[in-house]
Amino acid sequence: MKFGYYPGCTLLGTAREFEESLFAIAKRIGLELEAIPDWNCCGATAAHNLSHLLSIALPARNLALAEKSGMEEILVPCSACYSRLATARFELLENENLRKEVSELIEMEYQGTARVLNIIEGLNKVIGDGSGVKIQKPFEHKVACYYGCLLVRPPKVVKFDRAEDPQSMDELLKKIGATPIDWAFKVECCGAGFSVSRTDLVAKLSGRIIEDATKRGAEAIIVACPMCHSNLDMRRGEIEKASGKKYSIPVLYLTQAIGLAMGIDEKELGLQRHLVPVVFPEKPKTGEGAQAKEKATEAVEE
């Protein structure tokens, strides 16, 4: 299967491990990715706060270039980029006058033929039934699937999964051996682009997410958004300072979790780039759990 590909700025910089892990699994599941030629920044996260026309024109140019290259579906791993491209496509198809104005501005006709896919949609199209993933080491961990704000909102624009209780990432994780927890923070905001300007708010919001995942016994938080990963991983120090607690739970990209289950080397997946070490609790060896339980029972009886 072949998709057009929009990496955006982040996957070539602070979230390079997202792209590394994506390409690591792509070549093993028969997914070919072709980057949009001469792509530009989509304007996330500030353009839509400054100029509505600019916020549509920037992603529209990428969409028009994809159409010009004959791309029918574009994989956009970054949730912020996905939101901007999906929103631009929606507004341009709904508003003919805006479409004409933007087409003149970018000096290319935009028709709206190329569909935008987020990372979960794309992977589901390739390995949704589980047959395309050769599991070498099942990812047998209890996980918190964290979708964040932008993958499922606004529903009328993205038309993807359930807005308040999405399940698509959970289902993908189950196919590689994981056990997703049932929790209420799947789509709560982590603070998004306020990581630099209002780190205190990010620490508070992200801290609530990490606290709940930890309380419910999750061994890892799985994300599909560079901003979410940055806030939950890079801001761990600020989170711990604000909460007065220590948290060791790692944060992995969905592609990294799948890669680990496929037996791909951790370095190829970029795990060494995380600030919070990707370490999981040791599982009791066969029989150890029962023996420990038996000893505990004997101690109580005595």
Rough shape?
globular
DSSP helix fraction: 40-55%
Could you spell the SSE succession in H and E letters?
EHEHHEHHEHEHHEHEHHEHH
The overall number of domains is 2
Model regions low in confidence, pLDDT < 50 over at least 5 residues: 295-302
Biggest β-sheet strands, sense, barrel = 4 strands, parallel
Beta-strand percentage range:
5-15%
> What would you say the CATH architecture of the largest domain is?
3-Layer(aba) Sandwich
Number of strands: 8
User: What count of helical segments does DSSP give?
Assistant: 13
What CATH calls the topology of the largest domain is: Rossmann fold
**Whole-number mean pLDDT:** 92
Return Rg in Å.
21 Å
The level-1 CATH class of the largest domain: Alpha Beta
SSE-based structural type: alpha/beta
State the end-to-end distance: 63 Å
Strand arrangement across the biggest beta sheet? 2-1-3-4
Overview of this structure, please?
Helix 1 packs across helix 12, helix 4 packs across helix 5 and helix 9 crosses helix 11. The chain is built from 13 helices and 8 strands. With 302 residues, it is of the alpha/beta class. 46% of the residues lie in helices and 9% in strands. The protein is globular and about 65 Å long. The strands form 2 sheets. It has a 4-stranded parallel sheet with strand order 2-1-3-4, sandwiched between helices. A 4-stranded parallel sheet has the order 6-5-7-8, sandwiched between helices. The C terminus is likely disordered. It has 2 domains: 118 residues, Glutathione S-transferase Yfyf (Class Pi), Chain A, domain 2, CATH 1.20.1050; 142 residues, Rossmann fold, CATH 3.40.50.
